[in-house]
Amino acid sequence: MARLLFVLNDAPFFLSHRLPLALAAQAAGHEVIVGTPAGDGVDAIRAHGLTHQPLPLTRSGRNPLREAWALLSLILLFRRLKPDLVHLVTIKPVMYGGIAARIAGVPGVVAAISGLGFMFIRKGWRATLMRSLIGRLYGVALGHPNQRIIFQNSDDRDSVIALTGLPLAKTILIRGSGVDLQRYVATPLPDTAITVVLAARFLVDKGVREFVEAARALRQAGSPARFVLVGSVDPANPATLSAATVDGWISEGIIECWGQRSDMPAVLASAHIVVLPSYREGMPKVLLEAAACARAVVTTDVPGCRDAIEAGVTGLLVPLRDAGALATALHSLIKDPARCRAMGLAGRALAERAFDVRQVVACHLQIYQEVSTRS
Predict the structure, then answer these.
(1) Which of 19, 100, 169, 172 is deepest in the core (most CB within 10 A)?
(2) Which domains does the chain have, with CATH numbers?
(3) pLDDT digit string (tens) for 57-84?
(4) DSSP-based three-state secondary structure for 118
(5) Sheet holding 147-151, edge to edge
(6) Its pTM surpasses 0.85
(7) SS3 of residue 86 by DSSP
(8) By the 8 A CB rule, do 163 and 133 touch?
């Protein structure tokens, strides 16, 4: 079996999105190594019986010397460990790891592009310049002759193909990282005031401002609903909101904040409606989890978000950056609990058909087999 090396720039993200796959690969006989920066989550990775390799990768990239060292470190690591297969996850590991794998002669590469990042949302000449640079880096990173590139939605795939000329035959669509349907179970709607939850990092690009504006409008109109943020600010992301801004909303009485939570099944069980007015996603895991827990969803009609629901059946779509439309959609569900229940049940059925983590793991193991066979 293959020596398989995962490369990510965030250990908690590995635990929340790739742990079941790594454990399944290990159970299938692969030697599994997980490369992430040191810090939170590393002990948990080791506690699952996986080998951890510290990496000098950061989530932001503002120091050219540090970025060059990150790339060189990956080249040296690949040459030392001699993995048969590397699985690169998220933008920076895909770009740096893809280039390093070609230089180091890694036999096989799997790249998971789970969203294109804020540079594909922003407007203006700087964003255009950065997209051109990212396109050139992707062109090199995705040029390994024995490589499969996994996308979570067709819009992201088509954008990367247009930027790089990537052959369609090297790409595969898998709708997200899957949901454990035994952990995320359908529960009855709570017998409390209608609770609307946005669970995400507190970023402008997640539509947090639009959510707060919609909540303010609904509160002023006399809505009895509770509006809740779950998550935290993210200083490493240039789109982060400040803690002072969030505290101001709380003090104003518009929203509640439940902070960063690890018990998402319990959070979703406390909700009636789950909202994500994001500007763009790969495939938002929280919407897949909401569906599995039989919760109606309101989200934006943008890549990734619209792919996570069946519009009008499991949830509602609203236009991008439109707090008024978001308020209208939320009001229509707040006043109609029966519709919330019906959408939730349809969401659970969708999760069972399309989002079961066991299906996602099986698809990945098949990809590993195909790439390993060709190497």
Answers:
(1) 100
(2) 3-178+357-374 (3.40.50.2000), 195-354 (3.40.50.2000)
(3) 876 666 788 888 999 999 999 999 999 9
(4) helix
(5) 51-54, 31-36, 3-7, 85-89, 108-113, 147-151, 171-173
(6) yes
(7) strand
(8) no
